[in-house]
Amino acid sequence: MALTGDIAATYRGPGRVVRRLLSMGRREDRALVFLLLACLLMFVAQTPYQARLAHLDPDVPLSARLYWSALLWIFFLPLFSYLLAALTWLASRLARAGVSGYAIRLSLFWALMATTPVALLAGLVAGFIGPGPGLQLVGAVWFGLFLWFWIAGMRGAGGGMADEQG
Questions:
Q1: In terms of Cα–Cα distance, which of 84, 65, 1, 73 is closest to 41?
Q2: Model pTM?
Q3: How many CB atoms lie within 10 A of CB 64?
Q4: What is the C-alpha separation between 12 and 162, in angstroms, rounded?
Q5: What gap in Å lies between CA 74 and CA 36, rounded to an integer?
Q6: What is the DSSP string of 25-75?
Q7: Mapping DSSP to helix (H, G, I), strand (E, B) and coil, where does residue 134 land?
Q8: Sign of CA dihedral 9, 13, 18, 19
Q9: What's the average pLDDT block by block, 10 residues per block, for the chain (166 residues)?
């Protein structure tokens, strides 16, 4: 299925989509592409807000704001995501949950990827309306969807991938 079709299907059943992705075999390159594409789209989502800030405060030019935003979203978020996946894997081992490290990484990275449409909406709200209740609502929706997709993805992975280490 196409990436956009998988994203739409995730809103109907995130566990099924992650289970199907896992059934395609262990492909670290696929998981990494999901993560990097999600991070790139998160950076793009922040561009309207950075432009708004540059317009309101011209002391810091837009190019500088975009540089630091890119560093955060495209460099540090992938590192943080791998760290979060590793900590989750350690917690799952302590809890004796039957989820492999790969299934945790894939479900985390896919949750980021699948929530990018809402992140893009949040970027538009931040850029055109600015901080306020609307942005807080969209941010809360994004966070709730992210947690739902990630947890449902790990549950969908179940014990089927438990025998694989890492």
A1: 73
A2: 0.88
A3: 12
A4: 25
A5: 7
A6: ---HHHHHHHHHHHHHHHHHHHHHHHHHHHHH-TTS-HHHHHHHHHIIIII
A7: helix
A8: negative
A9: 88 91 89 95 95 93 94 95 94 85 93 96 94 96 96 78 44
